[in-house]
């Protein structure tokens, strides 16, 4: 299966710890997006990256959250000093970046902060 | 301020009948619209899309209609099958929609197909 791969599927962190979520895009895709889904809500855009560049981070909280997509390896969404409100499903998507190419999503990482 | 709205949290339809899911948007900059289907514990799966230059796009049992003047789109599934039971998300893309090339999503409609 050459789809978008996210790991871990489930992540439990205590308040104040760091969470690292990883995403490998589909083969041939160089555009990566991170979305967050809170309970009973739709998916909210967080950040859009291309290799080694953050293109749009307008949906990222100003503090504690960061994302990268290095030249080699997966994209990482990092949440420092997690709080209970960070508990959510985090979805990564990738696209080929051509006009109107649909986003393909991974199965998400469910983060629980205790 | 929700730019993409799905006003029905859930919809129940009998197997074999038509399912119609609705979506409204407020941002006139949106020019590309998509429907995604999501099963529990899985990521959204792309279903069908439509560009603002069209008013209809059909793919098998799925048809999406776009009414630009009303800023409204709908997804028709006919005939509905048990495997169609899922949450359906409407999404839109445009200059101000969810990032440079990202999507703005509605909250979803849970479609339940009854036998």
Major β-sheet profile of chain B:
6 strands, mixed
* Proportion of helical residues of chain A: under 10%
Number of distinct helices of chain A: 0
Mean pLDDT of chain A: 92
- Quaternary state reads heterodimer
Order of helices and strands of chain A: EEEEEEEEEEE
Order of helices and strands of chain B: EEEEEEEEEEE
The share of residues in extended strands of chain A comes to over 45%
Strand content of chain B: over 45%
Unreliable spans of chain A are: none
Characteristics of this structure?
heterodimer; A: 114 residues; mainly beta; seven-stranded mixed β-sheet; four-stranded antiparallel β-sheet; globular; B: 115 residues; five-stranded antiparallel β-sheet; 0% helix
Describe the protein's architecture and organization.
The complex is a heterodimer of chains A (114) and B (115). Chain A is mainly beta and 114 residues long. Chain A contains no helices and eleven strands. Chain A has strands at residues 5-7, 10-13, 19-24, 31-37, 43-50, 53-56, 65-68, 75-79, 88-95, 104-105, 109-113. In chain A, the strands form two sheets. In chain A, strands 2, 4, 5, 6, 9, 10 and 11 form a seven-stranded mixed β-sheet that branches. Chain A has a four-stranded antiparallel β-sheet with strand order 1-3-8-7, with no helix packed on it. In chain A, a hairpin with a 6-residue loop joins strand 7 (65-68) and strand 8 (75-79). Helices cover 0% and strands 55% of the residues of chain B. In chain B, the strands form two sheets. In chain B, strands 2, 4, 5, 9, 10 and 11 form a six-stranded mixed β-sheet that branches. In chain B, strands 1-3-8-7-6 form a five-stranded antiparallel β-sheet, with no helix packed on it. In chain B, a hairpin with a 6-residue loop joins strand 4 (30-38) and strand 5 (45-51). Chain B starts with a strand and ends with a strand. Chains A and B meet through strand 4, strand 5, strand 9 and strand 10 of A and strand 4, strand 5 and strand 10 of B.
């Amino acid at each position: 299966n050459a789809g978008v791969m996210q790991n871990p599927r489930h992540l439990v962190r205590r308040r104040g710890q760091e969470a690292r979520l990883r995403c490998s895009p589909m083969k041939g895709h160089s555009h990566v997006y991170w979305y967050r889904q809170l309970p009973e809500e739709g998916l909210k855009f967080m950040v859009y990256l291309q290799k080694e560049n953050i293109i749009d981070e307008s949906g990222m909280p100003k503090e504690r959250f960061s994302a990268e997509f290095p030249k080699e390896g997966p994209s990482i969404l990092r949440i420092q000093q997690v709080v209970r409100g960070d508990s959510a499903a985090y979805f990564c998507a990738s696209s080929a970046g051509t006009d109107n190419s649909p986003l393909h999503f991974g199965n998400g990482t469910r983060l629980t902060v205790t | 301020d929700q730019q993409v709205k799905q006003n029905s949290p859930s919809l129940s339809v009998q197997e074999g009948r038509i399912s119609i899911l609705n979506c409204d948007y407020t941002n006139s900059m949106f020019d590309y619209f998509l429907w995604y289907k999501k099963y529990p514990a899985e990521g959204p799966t792309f279903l069908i899309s439509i560009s603002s230059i069209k008013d209809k796009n059909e793919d098998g049992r799925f048809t999406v209609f776009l009414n630009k003047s009303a800023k409204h789109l709908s997804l028709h599934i006919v005939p509905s099958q048990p495997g169609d039971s899922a949450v359906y998300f409407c999404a839109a893309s445009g200059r101000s929609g969810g990032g440079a090339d990202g999507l703005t999503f509605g909250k979803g409609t849970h479609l339940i197909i009854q036998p």
